[in-house]
Amino acid sequence: MVTVADTGDGVVPRDIDRIFSPSDQHFVLSSLPPSTAQKRLALGLVCALIGIYLLITFGPFAGVVLRRVDAFIPIYTTAVLVNDSMTAILLYAQFSILRLRSTLVLASGYVFAGLFMILYALTFPGVFAPAGLIGGTQSAAWLYVVWKIGFPLFVLGYALSKDAEPGKALWRGSPRAGIALSVGAAALLIVAGAFVCIVGEPWLPRLMLDSRVLGPNWTYVGIPIAVASVAALATLLIRRRSMLDLWLVVVMFLYVIEVPLVYYPTPGRFSVSFYTVRILGILASGIVLIVMVHEITTLYVRLLQALRDQRREREARLFTGDAVAASIAHEVKQPLTAIITTADAGSFFLDRDVPDLDRVKEALARIAADGHRAGAVIENIRETFRNEVRNRTLLDINQLIRDALLLEQDELRKHRILVHVEPHQHLPQVRADRIQLQQVLLNLIANAIAAMAAREEPRILHLQSTVHADDCVLVSVADTGPGVDAHDSERIFNAHFTTKPDGMGMGLSICRSIVEAHQGRLWFAPNTPRGAVFRFTLGAESGGRPRPGLHEPSRSMS
Ligand code: ADP
User: Fold this and answer.
1) DSSP conformation class of 68
2) Is the minimum distance from the CB of 497 to ligand 1 under 6 angstroms?
3) Considering only CA atoms, which of 135, 133, 128 is closest in space to residue 73?
4) Domains of the chain
5) Cα Dmax for the chain
6) pLDDT for 315-366, tens place per residue?
7) Which of 470, 558, 480, 481 lies closest to 521 in space, CA to CA?
């Protein structure tokens, strides 16, 4: 199993399958903490609701009964049905990716609430028939009660199950089975509710005095509705973490104020409070839907952007890699050919009956000169990395680390590597070439993976970003592989130094060139208890420009 921690100050492993797959939790916006703006919006909404409540109960419209509008209930029930069904569909879609039981419970609640609307419309007087198409005078009111107790209980179930241990939080079966079970359970409850409220109507206590006026029994049924809603609201408030939780708090708050509004100041249908309660009901059913739609559209835009970025980066990497390979091949080919030809000539002079040692010496000198020339060519290629400053932009290194891990996710998963990320929460930005820095990170991560792949577990890749010497960003990539022999610790940065059968030995050399071109340093240190740590620094951007002279750490750091 591969886990990732992205905690800032500490390291808390999480399941990488949920971090690094399409089910990536950080892509699921509703499971992210709400932003300050959202918290303010939610608070504003709650304050507005309190205002509406006070206005309706004590204001000039208190007790006013309006005209009976028969079209109102069908509009209301249709709106709630559509909102609830769409919310349920979106929650099921999220469930089939994340497989969280809590999402399934919440989705069941929305199915339950949505289907209840059909029954409610069928029983409500004046919608399909003057006295309701099915059921007696009390049926619609009792269905309303069951609905208003039932939905908060589902929300309570969600709130209680959402923070369960990973083993219990995840649905182990197929998503289809989960969804079928959830819809089936909700439908069963509806049937049971319908049976009690419609068939059992004659035996139920009277909630309505007639088709319009609520009787005193309402105060008793109001209690379980209030208890269920307040319990869900309180649990959500205590366990509130995500954006979804926050908006469910608002939904439950709406439920809580609905209980007294239904009875006070006018205990009957078609009053100002009756209409207000139902309009607020439409709002309540739409809140989570808006959150989910917002999530989907934002996610869609992000995915498109990520895909575009990935393609651009891949092309740029291939281009850089190709360019390096082509320039090496092209520039080094000539001195290499010369070396081979001269070496052949040298052996020819040695093979003579009387070896011509002067010519052999001359050939060896030419070979050495060509060798130096090849070295200079490579140095020249490194120089090109040093001088490229055109593409530098302000970068968030933590984001770059996340992007690099995403690009390597398949390899990490394949080799069952545990990834720990410790990003510094207030890391300053750096002005750098995004593609080149990403290449550095990808090279270091690829090397770490290669080093650990052949070793027994635990294989841990630890990436950390910190602020160094006040104005430098320090990134370290540590692994638990075999490490580097002491006498190779500087040689590994030489071009062509490799210990891999199919290695080119260019990676670290290119990385060092890139980092140095950014006025930083890249160095190696042994990891404890085993493995290697590669660290590099970059000058942080302060006030728009990097501060000179402070970003070179002393070698003793390593
Ligand atoms: P290549 O990967 O093609 O060999 P590099 O320049 O990236 O080229 O690496 C040079 C050498 O440095 C590697 O062959 C390996 O011996 C050593 N090396 C690099 N990274 C690590 C690491 N994380 N752990 C152990 N050895 C490493």
Assistant:
1) -
2) yes
3) 128
4) 13-287 (1.20.1070), 390-539 (3.30.565.10)
5) 129
6) 666 556 666 666 677 667 777 888 998 999 999 999 888 888 999 999 999 8
7) 558
CA pair distance 456, 443, nearest whole angstrom = 22
CB-based contact 480:531 (threshold 8 Å): yes
Return the residue whose CA atom lies nearest to atom 7 of ligand 1: 507
Provide, for the chain, the percentages of residues in helix, strand and coil under a 3-state DSSP scheme, each rounded to the nearest 5.
60, 10, 25
* Whole-number pLDDT of residue 322: 61
Closest ligand 1 atom to 503 CA: 3
> Is the Cβ atom of 451 under 6 angstroms away from ligand 1?
yes
DSSP-derived letter for residue 100 is B
Mean of pLDDT values over 496-518: 84
Neighbours of 124 (CB within 10 A): 27
Angle at the Cα of 479 from the Cα atoms of 475 and 480, rounded to 5 degrees? 155
CA gyration radius for the chain? 34
Question: Does residue 448 have its Cβ closer than 6 Å to ligand 1?
Answer: yes
Q: Is 198 in the pocket of ligand 1 (CB under 6 A)?
A: no
Determine the atom of ligand 1 nearest the C-alpha atom of 482.
25
- The answer, yes or no, to whether any atom of ligand 1 lies below 6 A from the CB of 504, is yes
Higher pLDDT among residues 471 and 359, named by residue: 359
Q: Which atom of ligand 1 is nearest the CA belonging to 492?
A: 12
Place of tokens 């080093």: 451
Which tops the pLDDT comparison, 318 or 461?
461
Length of the chain in terms of residues written: 558
- Reference 218, options 269, 252, 253, 254; nearest CA is 269
**Cis preceding-peptide flag for 355 (omega within 30 of 0):** no
Identify the residue whose tokens are 């208003």.
148
CA of 313 to the centre of ligand 1 (A): 23
Are residues 527 and 480 in contact, defined by beta-carbon separation less than 8 angstroms?
A: yes
Give me the helices (H) in 162-174, please: 166-169
At 4, give phi and psi (nearest 5°): -130, 135
* pLDDT tens digit sequence for 115-151: 999 999 999 988 888 888 898 889 999 999 999 999 9
Mean pLDDT across 40-64: 90
Peptide bond between residue 34 and the one before it cis (omega within 30 degrees of 0) = no
Contact 439 CB / ligand 1 (< 6 Å):
no
Q: How many angstroms is it from 468 CA to the middle of ligand 1?
A: 25
Q: Whole-prediction pTM value?
A: 0.57
Q: In the predicted model, what is the mean pLDDT of the chain?
A: 83
Ligand 1 site, residue 522, Cβ cutoff 6 A: no
CB atoms within 10 A of CB 104: 25
Question: Does 507 sit in the ligand 1 pocket, CB within 6 Å?
Answer: yes
For ligand 1, whether the C-beta of 500 sits within 6 Å is: yes
Strand positions, DSSP E, 278-399: 392-395
Cα distance between residue 540 and residue 550, in whole Å: 10
Integer Cα distance of 212 and 535 in angstroms: 76
Whether the pLDDT of residue 448 is over 90: the answer is yes
Highest-confidence segment of 21-25, 158-162, 350-354: 158-162
